Amino acid sequence: MNLLSLYYFVELAKELHVTNTAQKLYISQQNLSQHIQRLEQYYGVPLFHRKPKLALTYAGEQLYAVAVKILAEEHEFQNRLADISEKSIGNLKLGIPSYRGQICLPEILPRFYAKWPNIKIELCNESSNKMEEHLYNGELDIFIGVMYQDNPKLESSTLLTDHIYLVCSDELLQRHYPDSWQKLKEESLSGVELAHFSKIPFLLPASSMKLRKTLDQCFLDAKVKPNIFLESQTTELFMSLYPHNYGAFFCTQMRLPTLLAAHPDANAFPLALKKSLINHRLVLAYHKERFLPEYAHDFIEITKDVFDGIAEVRPH
């Protein structure tokens, strides 16, 4: 048993697909299978059910829980060594949604690498819930994303109060509210009530996404059953469909510059409920009980400074 085999086992346990995991790890399927077989021989138990589809056995579930902790401790030890190394060689595991990374990392990374050229940054782009879980388990050093509730073991700092906007074209408004669309548009500039948009079809995030859960609660509170035209995991798809006027969609404030750059005439109304604007709390979080090297603390400070600038240019 070695750490590499444990690492390969954990990655396969997450993916539960040999071909995809092997490609992700840049190894052959045969090599991956050999590492799993060595672990099974070492422990004397099967770790995966092979049929009807790949799944962890009970022993595999127990090993996964332990292996995650072992690899987290080993990563923390590497961080401690990096902190005392003269060459400052190490890695930083960062969880951040891809679209947020596209906005902030081009400003963060040049400043970070000017001081820490030998640090490798590993990016994780999964759901916010999953990345928060990885952070708690020690599989990530830093998480940048949405958190609804504070965790006593996680240190979190608010980076941005990310308002939610309803994006709706003039054509959609005219089609569904021909006699009152201009008045509706003017009234919605300071905050849109979903009850006033009940006739409009919607493009909504997938039900598993945090934004969708917020929106579902808003629809429920407004006593509106949305007419759903399309659901998707990516807001980028909705932005690309904007000119076709299939329906209104929602986006966070952080996405607005990208939207308005592509469609300057787009209406973006801040979402409100009982005259209170709806928003997401975007945070930077790390585990209080995990060691963070100096370069990780520098990354945190640079990130906070960059988001201070992002917050200043957002519309109010």
Describe, in plain words, how this protein is organized in 3D.
It is a single chain. The protein is an alpha/beta fold and 316 residues long. Among the domains are: 1-84, Winged helix-like DNA-binding domain superfamily/Winged helix DNA-binding domain (Arc Repressor Mutant, subunit A, Orthogonal Bundle), CATH 1.10.10.10; 162-280, D-Maltodextrin-Binding Protein, domain 2 (3-Layer(aba) Sandwich). It is 48% helix and 21% strand. The protein contains twelve helices and 13 strands. It has helices at 3-15, 18-25, 29-43, 58-84, 98-115, 128-137, 170-176, 181-188, 210-221, 235-241, 256-262, 294-313, and strands spanning 48-49, 55-56, 90-95, 119-124, 142-146, 154-167, 201-205, 227-232, 248-252, 268-270, 272-273, 276-277, 279-287. The strands form three sheets. Strands 3, 4, 5, 6, 7, 8, 9, 10 and 13 form a nine-stranded mixed β-sheet that branches. The chain has a two-stranded antiparallel sheet with strand order 1-2. It is globular.
